Amino acid sequence: MIIRKSPAEIDSIAASGAILVRTLHLLERQIRPGVTTAELDAAAERYIRSQGGVPTFKGYRGFPGSICASPNSMIVHGIPGPYALERGDVISLDVGVTLDGWVSDAARTFAVGSVGVLAQSLLDATERSLMAAVEQCIVGNRLGDVSHAVQASAEADGLSIVRTLVGHGVGRNMHEDPQIPNFGDPGTGPRLEEGMVLAIEPMTTAGGPSVRVGTDGWSIYSQDGSLTAHFEFTVAITADGPRVLTPWHRPDGEEPALGNIRGRARVG
Ligand code: MG
Description:
Number of domains: 1
CATH superfamily: Creatinase/methionine aminopeptidase superfamily
CATH architecture: Alpha-Beta Complex
Structural class: alpha+beta
Strand order of the largest sheet: 8-7-9-14-15-16
Distance between the termini: 26 Å
Shape: globular
Largest sheet: 6 strands, mixed
Bound molecules: magnesium ion
CATH topology: Creatine Amidinohydrolase
Order of helices and strands: HHEEEEEHHEEEEEEEEEEE
CATH class: Alpha Beta
Radius of gyration: 17 Å
Low-confidence stretches: 254-264
Number of helices: 4
């Protein structure tokens, strides 16, 4: 069952999302060669708690970190630790924040210094596929429209979609119905209704779609060792269109990075 949220409840998730976005900005400013993922984790936890929030991931099914930090061929669920970022890496940072019992969930993949053209295009294309999905978060559309939008956009850019990992509903719990695959057929699946809140999260590789689980039992890598990317927003379906509850702002200014949905989607 997909739990619909009232406008006031969506505002509560947006308040959680605001802390989350500030956390990601803080982390972005700390990304440089030599910084360990444990240091990023500690900074995130400190900041989230300073804002009255709780890092949702910490202790979730025994996960030891406050964030997931997944470099290069690691797609998701990286346990923060001694790994030190290197120039040319890409690093996926996934953050969950619980505030007053409401969860928001978002992720971005960052470049460490300047990265190669292929890595940068992987990041850009994966973010674009997320934007394409957000654009489909309209009352009356179907979930398959969202899934298909990710797939069509990412595959048009030559990326592979990881099919064994999916997005999800979010609210009082981090993982609610529905599951949101990053592939699918338009016009299929449940109808999107006002008050649904979705964590949409394209996970892509520059190589093949197969994955393997790391020896720690958490981290998930591309099977072929290819570079990977992960972008995620928490989005509410509202009568006024999609409302991104974890809006990303470019470091240099005010403009949310919402590409072609700007003007149609409400931000924040
Ligand atoms: Mg998620």
